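Re: that backbone. Tokens:
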């Protein structure tokens, strides 16, 4: 299996715009507005759909703000959870609202690599010692193939977003699984001609200072702004196509 990062060597990442930090109050309000999709579809602007877990929820409002006047940015109305849930819900998410999607930026993985045990008292029943893995590598690959097949039917420009890093002392996830699952995803995306956003490397460039707390996969507000920079660049590159 080729390294995820060697596979990405053929992918050109194009820089475009950079977000700036806002006041603490403004950041909080932006996070609360992640699900505030545009009320009206501007026919003069491309429609962008964001699909992903809580990490994508964290950067959604910042991406929407950065693309104001360039694209109408929507997100699915929930956390995308694991890839099996994505297979179940993808048709509903794509057709809700009747939009024609020009760009779809999508991600699954952090839920897939999570070990859970019903008796664990840790948030989300996470337990990488006694728990059960949510999705195997091969199951993940199969789910992504089904999702990609459905996404390609939209004729949108597709962008796969790599799983962000798993830190040390994460209660339900093992370091290294993020890389293994990213490799499988990269193989699937490149075989389907899909653009890859290496958000894993981008996030690493500012860790650990942008971790919300030790052992947590989530980010501070500055961390989500950092992620949004990269997501915005990738979406603009897709729009230019």
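Recovered sequence:
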């Amino acid at each position: 299996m080729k390294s995820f990062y060697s596979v990405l060597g053929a992918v050109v990442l194009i820089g475009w715009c950079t977000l700036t930090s806002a006041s603490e109050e403004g950041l909080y309000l932006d996070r609360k507005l992640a699900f505030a999709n545009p009320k009206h579809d501007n026919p003069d602007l491309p429609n962008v759909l964001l699909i992903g877990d809580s990490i994508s929820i964290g950067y959604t409002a910042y991406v929407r703000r950065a693309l104001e006047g360039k694209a109408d940015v929507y997100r699915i109305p929930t956390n995308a959870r694991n890839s099996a849930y994505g297979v179940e819900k993808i048709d509903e998410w794509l057709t809700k609202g009747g939009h024609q999607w020009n760009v779809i930026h999508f991600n699954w993985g952090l839920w897939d690599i999570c070990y859970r045990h019903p008796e664990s008292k840790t948030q989300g029943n996470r337990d990488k010692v006694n728990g059960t893995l949510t999705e195997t590598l091969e199951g993940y690959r199969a789910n992504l193939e089904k999702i990609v097949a459905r996404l390609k039917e939209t004729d949108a420009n597709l962008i796969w977003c790599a799983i962000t890093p798993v830190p040390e002392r994460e209660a339900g996830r093992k370091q290294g699984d993020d890389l293994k699952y990213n490799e499988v995803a990269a193989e699937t995306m490149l075989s389907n001609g899909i653009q890859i956003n290496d958000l894993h490397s981008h996030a690493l460039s500012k860790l650990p200072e942008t971790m919300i707390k030790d052992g947590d996969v989530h980010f501070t507000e500055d961390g989500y702004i950092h992620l949004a920079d990269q997501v915005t660049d990738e979406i603009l590159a897709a729009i230019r196509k």
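Residues 1-28 have pLDDT under 50 and may be disordered. Residues 4-9+44-240 form a domain with the Rossmann fold fold (CATH 3.40.50.1110).
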